[in-house]
Amino acid sequence: MLIVHHLQRSQSDRIVWLCEELGLNYELRTYKRSPFLSPPELQALHPTKAAPIIQDGAITLGESGAITEYILTKYGDGRLSIAATAPNYADYLYFLHFANGYFQPALMRYGLVLKAGISDEVLNAKLARRGMQQSLQILEDRLRGNTWLAGEEFTAADVMVVTTLTTMRLFVPYSLQGYEAIMAYLGRVVEREAYRRALEKGDPGLEPVVGGGGGEGLCI
């Protein structure tokens, strides 16, 4: 059986959600932070020492993007992905990798600048803010004319991106005020039954961070 190792309040919520969307039969093992990092028993499973991690028979795999592609290929039966022959295949592929390839690194750079208290006049701070603004604007522009990131069909690209718009804001607060299309998109996300089930199973009691406010870091 597929085993999903999920660190609560982390990007591994993507994998729990993905499994729920696909209706897979899987075993979920949850872990609390210790106090901020993965606990020792989770770290021992993989060289990355971080969630998500899955086990499938003799296979142990880390990295949320790789795990997502593994599950889609082995268990998806074409669901939550776009065929290479479809006109929106490139859009799907771009946003499937957008979170880990561009958006999340930009968020981490922005968070480091905020934590260090670097003035907005410093070049690194300007670049960090610009990266966040560009990330959000790319999503805003895409969602103004599309229900989901790949088009009118919900896909794994949405599963990958939403975590950076929600869970990661627990660690690097930023505002979505002014990004009306993104806010409407998150409203559609929280209406999905599989999303609510994933939260209840993986992070019981955690309210999804889908509001517009963001504390100290305002990216508007």
UniProtKB/TrEMBL annotation:
What are the GST C-terminal domain coordinates in residue numbering? 85-212
Q: Where is the signal peptide?
A: none
Coiled-coil annotation reads none
Q: Which reaction does it catalyse?
A: RX + glutathione = an S-substituted glutathione + a halide anion + H(+)
One Gene Ontology cellular component term attached to this UniProt record is: cytoplasm
Q: Which keywords are on file for this protein? A: Transferase
GST N-terminal domain location is 1-79
Q: What is its EC number?
A: 2.5.1.18
Source species, domain of life: Eukaryota
User: Which GO terms of the molecular function aspect are on file?
Assistant: glutathione peroxidase activity; glutathione transferase activity
* Similarity comment: Belongs to the GST superfamily.
This chain's protein is named glutathione transferase
What's the source species for this entry?
Aspergillus heteromorphus CBS 117.55
Q: What is the lineage of its organism?
A: Eukaryota, Fungi, Dikarya, Ascomycota, Pezizomycotina
